[in-house]
## 1
Amino acid sequence: MPLKELEAKNAKPKDRAYKLADSEGLFLLVQPNGSKLWRMKYRFGGKEKLLSFGAYPDLGISAAREKRCAAKQLLAQGKDPMANKADMMPDGAATFLSVAQRWHENRESSLDAAHSQRVWSRLERDVFPALGSKMMHEITPPDVLEMIRKIEARGALDISRRAKQGVGQIFQFAIACGLVSSDPTTHLRGALKPRPRVKHMSRLPLTELPQFLLKLQRYEEEGDRRSSITRDAVTFALLTWVRTKELRFAVRSEFEDLDGKAPIWRIPAERMKMGREHFVPLSKQAAAIARRMIVTSTGEFLFPGAVPKKPLSENTMIYALYRLGYHSRQTVHGFRGLASTWANEQLVEFGKPAMWIRRYHEDWVEMQLAHSEENEVRGAYNAAEYMVPRRRMMQDWADFLADQEKIGLSQAHKKAA
């Protein structure tokens, strides 16, 4: 059991020095003369060593535990705390900011760099001004809620939740280090303003795909020789599940192995919503469009606009959908939801007795859509992760679309007959 404040305070001297154990090597050494000294026993280089922190009550239990936590972090880095005392925190430095810094350093190596920077920037902007200088054990649920209310006041409801999550993670770290005994964010359940209902981009039911695909392949804007570029851009968006901005600014140099077995599109981090490089495995149909555009178009952009050296304009693709008769029924961004619905509904029979499981794991779908910002493990930010199953999934999707177009053509022939 960790040492309690009352036990340390009431400890009386004896004829011989004795120890009051806290946890993880930390103990209070009570001397015959009445002095009480913090010590930490640890091993380094195969040898048992003893670290001195200071005297109680000048150095309180929380501060001693923080020093223990700092010492253990040094050990985890392969450093001897006794030889690196300068890296340990000063007495009584258990402020929210100081603990947050230790928390961030402890986890930084396991995070994607861009995500790590975003998390720290949020804390600097919204949390530290309100809580940074406060001692950890003094921070109350109303303190945290007051900070959150200021974020909510500017309408940033997602940011307010992430701020609460960050504060909670820092307190959990502090609890593990023995600096505090509770997390004030656990008392805020139900206190935050609810997020507004998400408005999904318009998308067709999958049953209407045959007719839509037939219209798209026959798309031709009157008097516009550029109709084929628009048609190919819309089709490419449907095949790849990317956002409009990611497609419009695609350049030739981002495409690799278009004539090989593993064609791929590397979208740079600066064009991605989540700020990390994204790899898009290309189906045979998508690779064919990319090859054709590289051969027939001029300039660096894969889908050039009407103005020389400029990409396709922002509204070109959505206006094409309007002309096809899908105003308020289907958007380019809505293709992502359409594809996601298809992927999540695909089931396969497995085992005996037979049961149904998903054909495509949800992680593959989320990775293809470039989601999962809040997953902090570095592996989740590896843009090439799940490349083999994602490539199979995207080829299945492209083949499904090809079959739907054939169905649309067959329906049109029957109607004409």
## 2
Amino acid sequence: MTGFGKQNMALLVVREADDIGAALQRALDTASAEERPGLERALALTAEAGAVPDAELRGRWALRRMASAGYDGPPGAVAGVKALRTAERGLSLLQAVNLSKDAEAVRAAEPAAP
């Protein structure tokens, strides 16, 4: 189905890393020797942030929203989906399930706690 119905994702990932990177590069081009290390580091961090996939950003967001609702269990569980919909009342069930899948992938990629 096409269009803007409830089945579409409600979470839009906005990226401005390219614009920020270009501004940092312009600043670096004219920077003094004292400013260069900080600007180079900022440019590298911006590039790293810009390389993160949208699904990972959505998953991180979903985990934060679940945590804000007091939930810290498995993101893909029914309780996780419910917590997400409690935190973000405008989400449809399908949207919350899809976001919980992104959150599950993020959680699975995290290194195990010692």
## 3
Amino acid sequence: MDFTDVSLTALRVLRAVAEQGTFTAAAASLGYTQSAVSRQIAAIERGAGTELLERRRDGARLTPAGRVVMRRATVVLDEIAATARELSGLPEQTGTVRLGWVPSAGADLLPHALAALRDSDPGLDVVSREGGTPALVRAVRAGTLDLALLASAPPFRAPDNESPPLTLQTLTERPLRLAVPATHPLARGEYVDVADLRGQRWIAGSSAGEDRLMGVWPGLDERPEIAHTARDWLAKLHLVAAGCGLTTLPASLIRAVPPGVRVLPVRGGPQEQRRLLLAHLPAPPSPAMTRVATALRAAALDTRTPGPSS
């Protein structure tokens, strides 16, 4: 084993594969070819003298040895970033917390918490990025995120089956809502019956697979007609306002609803609750992480009563 010649590029590539879950996605995120990613991974595995990634049909996951290397690599890469920051003359910070968040947390809770932290703890640096729950879980496992805000739906299973389990805290649990054009016949009442959702046109997610149905009311007994796809929640809501279809809406986004949209509960069928979870590795959090977590919990309490629908 000779780890002394491992490059920073190889460490960054390993981090990208751990976060993205596949060599292809890692290559796209870095702007590399897939063969270049494979060469960097082969080089770092030669230096380690063992496999660092488990190649599986559904992607790549860190092996136990890979988790050790990733934990150390994260320290190295963070120190390099801190050195660059210091050389650029930025003021010293009291701590940095890397926070991941699902899109539904970005409209209200996250800005609320960050604004409070800016006032109460100006020396604390929070670096955040948006992602889907599976990608954020991989990043927490890889050690490249300290905290992550995750989405969870019934039956509220653990976000992955890796060991040891992540430490999870429920920040909010709210019912899923329906966003309807204000001119739509369904917008005339105070709620929508689930039976009336048959034959409707939907605005759903833009990903392949199960995520593509995000935006369609769960459990419909028909193949839904998806009229439009959009990744961004605000784009979905503006399409609803334009009369292009219906979409589902986490209650945490009600404050972001544009004019021309009514947000209504749906009656009939099973309860559709949605949770927002705060996740981190099962180790004592740093003081900086604790301060960010406290701000997120306070923001969750302050925003738990949504504003009125349009």
## 4
Amino acid sequence: MRKGLKKIFILFFWLAVWQAVSFFMDNSLVFSGPVEVAEALSRLVPTAAFWKTIGVSLGKIGSGFCLALAFGILIGGLSYRFSFLGELLSPVISLMKTVPVASFVILALIWMGSSRLSVLIVFVVALPVIALNTQTGLKSVDPQLLEMADIFRIRGMKRFWYLYRPAAAPFFLNACRLAVGMSWKAGVAAEVIGVPAFSIGEQLYNAKIYLETADLFAWTAVVLALSYFCEKLLLALGRILLREGGSVPDGGKRRKSGKGL
């Protein structure tokens, strides 16, 4: 209860600061306050175009993230299992990490146009985070536990469930937390550059063109809310699937998932 009140207080404090800055600047074209943004949201939310725009952007950014999740887990797992493959893919992963997003966006526009641009950009941004964290998580298994598993001939899914899963789970969930936020930032930035129809990036671009600062802030708030809820949903699903901190059945008995064997 006290923690919830503390969060509410912090939220209202920064809303008050925001409103105060807007009041002293006294120019809604330059800096809109929370009241103007709330008015813009109340105008946008009831429209069908608003929900269609959210659906299109969510579908494309979500598709790119799901592809990155699947390939990231695969690449991370194979890189751990076959060290040569990890060394072979290392330059590509490093390239994807370091090359500016704008460069990828321009190349993607040349190659494939703007319709699927955000899917590719999100994939490129999220893949290295998931792959590297997956590989690091698998490497973090205690060598003594692996040696004991070899002695007792624990193989296959049982080895994965009791040894690799609890070790890799924190790294994997942290990767998802980071990758979701990065995906929304990169995906929307790609939409602003490519301006595909019915996208949040198109709405941000139009807000800039027509000097609708309140709409710009409103759509930014929508992106923040979508990123937040996607992150919470993904982490909740990840904890359920990985049963992090929970228990797993073992011969009729239940034991903590972090207690491998």
